Amino acid sequence: MEKDKLEEFVRSRSAAFDTDEAPAFAWESIEKEIPAKKKAANIKLLPIIWKAAAAVLIFAAAWFTNDLFDSGKIRKSETANQTIVQDPVISELIDAEAYYTSQIQSRQQELARYAEEHPEIIAELKAEFKAMDERKEELRQDLAQSSADEKVIEAIILSYRVKLEILDGMLLEMKRSRDAETQPEEAEKHL
To answer: I need a surface site. Which of 16, 70, 105, 190 has the fewest CB within 10 A?
Structure first.
């Protein structure tokens, strides 16, 4: 209720409040301050806008240049891949590598299940395979220099076969030892 009385009092005497005006010199000083602040803000903002525009322009130029060089590299690698695939001996090597790699990975996964209690076996195997891979990489370099020499290709494929034979031999031994361990246990269960 008090708010209503106050509001009513202000409304009834609003004409008396409107008679007083601020002196002219006060308005002049206020007007001088307002535009001065706006100009200062605009002047400080302009260099920032120019710097941002320059940064965007430099970035766009770098992006365009990178795309230009990358497209040239892609074309060159596509041409090199086409020449490699056109050679039937090389395409046979690629197929053989894909086959042997999948077989080796499969055998390694199977061996990892058997060799859980003997991790040193896996460590030795990895070290041996690393050395074989280094030798195979040397053969690849020879292959690039000898322009698809069949002896080099046969040596690369042989390295895959040797790996596969090593893994098969280890798997066979692991299965035999595990079977030998389980046979006495099964015989005891039947007694």
So the answer is: 190
Does residue 26 lie in a domain region? yes
Return the closest-CA partner of residue 129 out of 117, 145, 111: 111
Q: Which of the listed residues 86, 112, 131 is the one where a domain comes to its end?
A: 86
Q: Which domain holds residue 82?
A: 22-86
Contact 127, 166 (CB under 8 A): no
185 in the same domain as 143 = yes
pLDDT in tens, 64-84: 888 877 776 666 555 555 555
* Tokens describing residue 161: 């076969």
**103 — pLDDT class (breaks 50, 70, 90):** confident
Whether residue 80 sits in one domain with residue 92:
no
